[in-house]
């Protein structure tokens, strides 16, 4: 089977990239190892994706945003970051930015479903599901992709969007700096009796981190980071026990709490690919940059990255140039690294500071938050970053 572009991975990044190519006349295959039914009807996975203004604009351009039901979009007005028992919280307010709110929360499941429905309606896209990639061979002006079930696909450009543990990245011989944080993140929804006023909270407590994300109604998402032994204990709790545990960790700020969804646990591993491109190939989404979720930037970066690659590729296509040329790939690599690396490095610095339980680090993190809160330009810079379009 011959295509202009083969995308591996029908996650949010791969599907949004296929969507970005609509109307271009380019033929596209999207290869996904899961069966078709699993990607057509993605199940709740606990992830509530915080989207920035820039991401909303891209999702509108892709005509995906209007497919999200209004009830599934929760406003994110302000954010508060606290350290342990300290009374000082760093407050990031939408009023410091360029808009009435910092962003929006949309369930990952909703984004995946909307992207799947849009892409599966595109005539030029073929979905090749139920088999992963076994081998990749670059030959002259093209690349051959061998699937585990024996099928073979040929393309002018291969795009890897197959997660932070990307098999295609490895097959392409591209290394990655990977950091296992040694902790796990549990996400679930809970109901509560006190209103959240659409404010997100993040507590960098001692021995654990807890974030509360405001959803529509008296509903929030809890994002709890623990070491594996602590996580095992929490996982063994009944729903009632877990609700009581969360209520205590959040110091009663949401009143009475009860569980409202299944729980989902993720290992925390950050990944930054050594290159985002190879001969006739590009990496996007988590395959290029797999962020620690603490700063909620993974998919936001993935959306921007796929848009950058699509722009470079479509410009070449319009000019009758080779869509898989070194020039196209180098442009994407340069632009995406320049945008992604500062965010990745800043996130790593935050994690380093807040995972360190030594007295000096505790003092430093408390002092940093107090100072940051007293320096309006710092708060405004974060708010402006989140609200820029
Ligand atoms: C708890 C949690 C909370 C998060 N919150 C936020 C947030 O608030 N804001 C934000 O921006 N980001 C957030 N993220 C990050 C965001 O979820 C990811 O960045 C995003 O899902 C990455 O999309 P992707 O398409 O690159 O990869 P994935 O979602 O991992 O999808 C990869 C796809 O490739 C398929 N695949 C894998 N291997 C193969 C193969 N060999 N062959 C074929 N197919 C393959 C998989 O089945 C999958 O469908 C969060 C992540 C977690 C874990």
Description:
The chain has helices spanning about 10-20, 35-40, 55-60, 110-120, 165-170, 230-235, 240-250, 300-320, 325-355, 360-375, 375-385, and strands at about 5-10, 30, 50, 75, 80-85, 90-95, 105, 125-130, 135-140, 140-145, 150-155, 155-160, 175-190, 200-205, 210-215, 220-225, 255-260, 265-275, 275-280, 280-285, 290. It is built from 11 helices and 21 strands. A hairpin with a 4-residue loop joins β14 and β15 (about 210-215). By secondary structure, the chain is an alpha+beta fold. Flavin-adenine dinucleotide binds near residues 34 and 49.
Strand tally, please? 21
Number of helices: 11
Please identify the top-level CATH class of the largest domain: Alpha Beta
Reported by name, the CATH topology of the largest domain is FAD/NAD(P)-binding domain
Classify the beta-strand content into a percent band: 25-35%
Class computed from helices, strands and strand pairing: alpha+beta
What binds here, in terms of ligands, is:
flavin-adenine dinucleotide
Averaged pLDDT, please?
A: 91
Q: Rounded to an integer, what's the Rg over CA atoms?
A: 21 Å
Helix content: 25-40%
Instruction: List low-pLDDT spans.
Output: none
N- to C-terminal distance: 39 Å
- Give the CA-based shape: globular
Q: Largest sheet at a glance?
A: 9 strands, mixed
Q: Do you know the CATH architecture of the largest domain?
A: 3-Layer(bba) Sandwich
CATH H-tier superfamily of the largest domain? FAD/NAD(P)-binding domain
Q: Tally the structural domains.
A: 2
